Write a sequence for this structure.
């Protein structure tokens, strides 16, 4: 099947080892060497790693920095510089918007484009790749397929610096023998439950009766799994994503057991969160806190206010009351504050923090 016969043409563009790429652009002498971008604290995690570091020691994003240092002590470790990454990202996204009408940005380093109706989607994405390389010195991987889901899966096939086009039929043949977890959104726990049902491959998931999946996982999740098993996805590409909530979180280098110390951190987080919300002209009606104890127990508490706000003098007392009311029974590993329900149709129970802002402690 040619692209011309597709109902939708969706592209996913993913910058290659983006943060490391920005650092290599500033430090060309490091090209070809294993570079890891991460903090230095005992609980820091890897932001990204160059492909050399990935090949040598399997270092990847979200890996604890301490593990990375043990695996590859001779790598070059660089602290993250997010202002520089945001600056580079702005250039990349401007290139995308100049070449396509419908662009959905989902992070500093990735975006979806709806190319339906464009005369030559492949030529368009080649041009975009070339312009990004010329303006930033960075490379990206591109996937083109019939849906948002398939475009993301396809972009992974060409890493780094590739451009891959795959139809749904081709994707079913390519991925069918693989585990269900190859599909974004099917996590380890769901994959484990599927395996207990005798579903060890994506093809097996697609062949399973939808009614059975709905009975096992619930109507909504079962229907979603059945669709993903057949690599079907109708999720639209939207120019602007609805912001459900914004948060600031701190993972402590050492677990904190004193309530007074937690209160000081919460106050700093509240000031930072409200400052950023004012800059974005966002106001919310649901104020919440998130606490992760030293045994990894996660606790959330929230309270709604009558009028939308981004005033720290309104947010802070409520966040403080929520913290004191819970009074953590064990030392705290992570503490965060959240403001949600920005739209008129607010959902005060929303738990998703997207996009998420983090306030990191030194180190």
């Amino acid at each position: 099947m040619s692209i011309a016969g597709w109902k939708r043409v969706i592209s996913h563009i993913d910058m290659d080892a983006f943060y490391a790429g920005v650092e290599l652009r500033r430090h060309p002498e490091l090209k070809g060497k294993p570079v890891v971008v991460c903090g230095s604290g005992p609980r820091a995690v890897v932001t990204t790693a160059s492909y050399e570091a990935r090949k040598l020691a399997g270092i990847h994003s979200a890996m604890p920095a301490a593990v990375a240092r043990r695996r590859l002590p001779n790598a070059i470790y660089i602290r993250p510089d997010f202002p520089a990454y945001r600056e580079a990202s702005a250039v990349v996204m401007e290139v995308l918007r100049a070449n396509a009408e419908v662009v959905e940005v989902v992070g500093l380093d990735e975006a979806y484009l709806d190319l339906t109706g464009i005369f030559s989607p492949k030529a368009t994405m080649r041009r975009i790749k070339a312009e990004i390389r010329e303006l930033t010195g960075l490379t990206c991987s591109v996937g083109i397929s019939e849906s948002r889901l398939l475009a993301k899966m396809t972009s992974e096939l060409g890493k780094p610096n590739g451009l891959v086009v795959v139809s749904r039929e081709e994707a079913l043949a390519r991925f069918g023998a693989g585990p269900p977890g190859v599909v974004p959104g099917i996590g380890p726990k769901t994959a484990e439950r599927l395996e207990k049902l005798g579903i060890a491959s994506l093809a097996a998931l697609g062949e399973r009766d939808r009614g059975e999946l709905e009975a096992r996982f619930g109507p909504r999740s079962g229907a979603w799994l059945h669709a993903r098993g057949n690599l079907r996805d109708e999720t639209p590409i939207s120019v602007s994503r609805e912001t459900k909530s914004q948060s600031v979180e701190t993972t402590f280098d050492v677990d904190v057991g004193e309530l007074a110390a937690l209160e000081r951190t919460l106050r700093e987080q509240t000031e930072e969160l409200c400052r950023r919300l004012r800059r974005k002209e966002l106001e919310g009606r649901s104020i919440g806190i998130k606490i992760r104890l030293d045994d990894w127990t996660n606790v959330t508490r929230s309270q709604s206010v009558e009028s939308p706000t981004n005033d720290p003098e309104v947010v802070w007392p409520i966040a403080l009351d929520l913290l004191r009311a819970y009074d953590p029974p064990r030392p705290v590993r992570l503490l965060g504050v959240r403001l949600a329900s920005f739209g008129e149709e607010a959902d005060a129970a929303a738990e998703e923090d997207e996009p998420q802002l983090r306030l990191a402690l030194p180190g």
